[in-house]
Design brief:
five-stranded mixed β-sheet, 7 strands, disordered N terminus, alpha+beta, about 475 residues, two-stranded antiparallel ribbon
Amino acid sequence: MKNLSSTAPAATRTAASSVAGHPAWARLKAAVEQLRPLQSKDGSIDLATPGAPARAAVDALLETVVAAVGELAPLLPHDAAYLDACVADLRRWAEGGYGVPDFLDSLLAFHPAGRREDGLEHLVVFPMYTQNGNPDRNLEAVLLRVVWPDWLAELERTRFDNPLFVPITFLDFTAGYDTNSAVLFPETVAVREVPERFTWGAIFCDREAARFRAVSSAAVDLLGLDLPDEARELIRDQEIAQQTFVLWDLVHDRTHSHGDLPFDPFMIKQRAPFWMYGLEELRCDLTAFKEAVRLEREGAGTELGRYGRRVQYAVLFDRLFRFPVTGGRVRNYDGLGGQLLFAYLHKHDAVRWTDNRLSIDWERVAEVTTALCREIETLYREGIDRPKTAHWLAAYELVSRYLTPHPASTWAKGADALPFEGQPDAKALNKALCDAVLPDEFPLSMFYEALAKKLRDVIAATKGITGDSAPRAAA
């Protein structure tokens, strides 16, 4: 395997972006920011009602965006087909009176996974919502840079095949990304019809790493946790953390399509109890943890082995410290996964909370974490032979083995209490079962209630964070 010592993320070791520093980008960004507040939830602009913006003013803003894209296009020749299609979609939106936007043509022309090169830049202009960010399909403009070092390309080619995965960093962005969103997914774009298949999915590793460092650092101090030197280095150094998250994301993302899967792994357009989503996301993270353990063993003494170890720390700390106390308590499936991991480690004595200090048994934590992964994998394998509702019940039993359900839970009373009778068809039954789930079916433990209060401000401060805004490594 290649040595990783000189493979800091492209965003920190290349010259400043010629696109981000171009006057046309500043004009484009400013025009988009003026257009966004004029849009409705579906992306349309109402020009007819009293008080609506003047058509001429909207046209002028759109022409500024179109002209700026044209100016920047020569700096991004690899995106020529996409940027041409983007201009055409923008003009068609205007010609249609700014109704619900349709950027399917430009979306189909954008292929960042087809040319994954370290440091390659892209300009993205789409009407879209941003996951964990803005729920409306506003126009957004994002400048990004691909992170694809040689060692990662080699791992993807030989071990973790994932042709759709594109790790990226922010160069600049409009307001929809001044949020908690750390992904750029094609399914968020406003289109007239959903493509048969998507060909890429991008994750901002700089935001993930910066957020992880801020929250983990605060949690470690609050909980009095003693860390191995390598774990401290991971939390301290943005470049190392970004590399770690790229490796974690590579394995996590592909896991959605690998293994014994009793259902559509991405659960697209399905309704299921939220713990099913929580278990799926946790399964993918624990698979990345398990693979990282193997990389550490196989690459003992090498930089690749050290990155395997770092992924284990990253999965543990993000899942234990950030996930359970981030976001609301209504069907928070990522929070549930973090709660489950903590409870499992605690019940198996790999984590202890004694004298108001948290301790981790660093000799056993990998073994116990991997054991939870095996339990979830067994649930999935056995689920292939079960009806859907029986699989949901089995999953609930697994979770409630380690987490205490809400005292008023109907699901906790067992199958006899659930509305299986009187449903006209399977769809109605599924809805009735999901409706019986409480918004906060598995409330936070007293440990996490206290931690949530202490980390609230730290988590809030990570909104919009990037690698450039995160603290740099100490000299």
